[in-house]
Amino acid sequence: MNVMKYLALIAVSVMSLLMGACASPHPTSGTIATEITRDVAEGTWALTDSENALFNVNLLNDGVAISNWSKGPDGAKGESGTWKVEDGILLLNWTDGWLDVIQLGQIGFEKYSYAPRANRQGPPTSFGQAVKVLDDSSQWSGVWKTRSADPKFNKQPFYICLLSNGAAMKSIDAINTGWWQKQQGGIAIYFSDGWYMLLTREGDTVEAKSWAPGASRTAMPTGTSPMTQVLE
Q: Which residues, 6 or more positions from 168, have their beta carbon under 8 angstroms from its beta carbon?
């Protein structure tokens, strides 16, 4: 009889483990190792949205979060929010009501997203991996503001979002997508509508030279204007 009780106890334990392994992912403190500090959190992250599309988040040392996610109503202007670390878990609260939770899981950093008004104690709306961007692209990934060199826009301000995978998007022109790559002293942006931009950095100052479609890139630029990174 004692042997039967012992075997029954083993069976119950095995079932409990299997049920726990099949539970849906949920960022509950204590179930996954959480080792994020403010120093680890600050900087640039590569995340994916609910459609598995890449976007970046810049976390500044004053608790401000800037995202270059461009599918919202502001397009290439991205989104803004705040961030903090609680008990080793990184919390990103966005002005549109979304919450992103990042913590260290079994195979690296994991992101859990909750839609506005979603139960924050229930299953996340979406989840995926989160990667800290540590290479040179972290210096450029984010949202930038400058002025148009196109005469028809009369130096109108516009935004450019640069993703860490080399994709680019602007908030002006009907054809507004492109790509960027590192150049000596800065980066080059090639837009699908033919516009070409060369960004150079000297200390904290970034300058943009722009060439109109068809213009020789060895000639004088169509326009030159300062570039400022959106940090609030």
A: 160, 161, 162, 177, 178, 179, 180, 189, 190, 191
Please state the pTM of the whole predicted model.
Answer: 0.76
As given in the structure block, the two tokens for residue 171 are 């908030």
Closest CA to 147 of 64, 221, 67: 221
Position 129 pLDDT exceeds 80: yes
Delineate the domains of the chain, giving CATH numbers in brackets: 29-134 (2.40.128), 137-229 (2.40.128)
75: Cβ–Cβ under 8 A, 6 or more apart, which residues? 159, 169, 171, 176
Residue 193 predicted with pLDDT over 70: yes
β-strand partners of 223: 210
Short-list 51, 61, 78, CA closest to 159: 78
Tell me the C-alpha distance between 66 and 145, whole Å: 13
What six digits make up the tokens of 154?
A: 């009369």
Using the Cα atoms of residue 194, residue 195, residue 200 and residue 206 in order, give the sign of their dihedral: negative
Separation of CA 14 from chain center: 40
Q: Which residue has the tokens 């949202």?
A: 143
Give per-residue burial for 10-23: e unless 16+ CB within 10 Å, then b: eeeeeeeeeeeeee
